Amino acid sequence: MSxxxxxxxxxxxxxxxxxxxxxxxxxxxxxxxxxxxxxxxxAPLGLYAEQLSxxxxxxxxxxxxxxxxxxxxxxxxxxxxxxxxxxTLRTAPFTETVTDPNRLRWDPLPDPAPGTDFLAGLWxxxxxxxxxxRAGMAIxxxxxxTSMTDRVFSDSDGELLIVPERGGLxxxxxxxxxxxxxxxxALIPRGVRFRVELLDATAxxxxxxxxxxxxxxxxxxxxxxxxxxxxxxxxxxVAAYEDREGPVEVVNKFCGxxxxxxxxxxxxxxxxxxxxxxxxxxxxxxxxxxxxISYDHPDxxxxxxxxxxxxxxxxxxxxFVVFAPRWLVGEDTFRPPYFHRNVMSEYMGLIEGxxxxxxxxxxxxxxxxxxxxxxxxxxxxxxxxxxxxxxKPQKIDDGLAFMFETRWPVTATAQAAGADHxxxxxxxxxxxxxxxxxx
Length: 439
Known about the structure:
Layout: H1 3-11, E1 16-18, E2 24-27, E3 48-53, E4 66-71, E5 82-84, E6 104-106, E7 122-130, E8 135-144, E9 151-155, E10 159-166, E11 169-173, E12 176-180, E13 184-188, E14 194-198, E15 203-210, E16 235-237, E17 245-254, E18 257-265, E19 270-275, E20 280-283, E21 304-308, E22 318-323, E23 326-328, E24 345-353, E25 367-370, H2 380-388, E26 394-396, E27 399-406, E28 411-412, H3 414-417
Parallel strand pairs: 9-17
Antiparallel strand pairs: 1-16, 2-19, 3-4, 4-19, 5-18, 6-25, 7-8, 7-28, 8-15, 10-13, 10-15, 11-12, 11-14, 13-20, 17-18, 21-22, 22-27, 23-26, 24-25, 24-27
């Protein structure tokens, strides 16, 4: 059986625990979870009790993140970490280039060199803030053709929102297994160790590294109790452990650099756990789209799946927004996204199909960056078509796009600003918009 076949078999029929932000609990071996206390004098089955804290101990209960892990060896049992090559991975503060007000767009990443796994295939486009100050975000892309073997990764700088665009992934985490296909997103909390195995010959996609407050579901306000991303549709893993001896490289991203240590056992050895600092997978097609049923195009904030709050209500460190299949029925309305300038900065990617505001040039695996106050909107072809269209109910179901929207400008890395796949003629999509003013 090939490696991909073995991975697919492991990904079949995975069990989950549903609900975003829940106090989940799971045990792979009956009796592994202690009852009535978190840290008994002797943990069951000869395991070690260990708390993984994703927030400060005294943060408010609604924001407090922690999980108790019951593992074969404690995480403390490891040798010293040493610096290793960062490859094409970069971290805030981004100071190697000047922040660019121009509109930028990229084609997909080139195919990876043979033998590239998820970690080696991470390529940083840009970001903002300061990872050491736990503020801001980074935008990465990945392209891989090889599963991570005898290698595990964790990110101390932030949580990772993984958006597959091509090829499925099996995520083996400390807390269990998750399967993420194109059209899904996977959320790996800060500090959780995981390994990425490929379900197909190649894999490609996007990653938002959130240095700030952990992602939460946005408040619904006058929408009411239901809508947008429903908590029940987020799936957490159930406990599944590796009891394996032998060398395993553990790579930790810490304050912008990669550090490596070789363990003599797999650190994915959690037999039971409970808590709310947990990975999730979510199917974007389950997003309950709310939109206008009278006139005008709603602001894209109505499509927010997850948000990382800041110290200013409503001003997110980063929002994750999805443009999912939906009906357009607005009367006397220009239905594609309107022309606008935004105090927020927007990076947009495409998972499949086409985006209704861009007729050409914006393809799956590619992306565009519109920094704060840069003017953008539908290209000329889209504008002309939409302005002449018959306004009957229209189903948008041939594309799946998303946006990372952030309060600060995004500084592109030098490798992104000089990339061969940067579209240097992007501004041309707005050329030819005619002067039709008739006073």
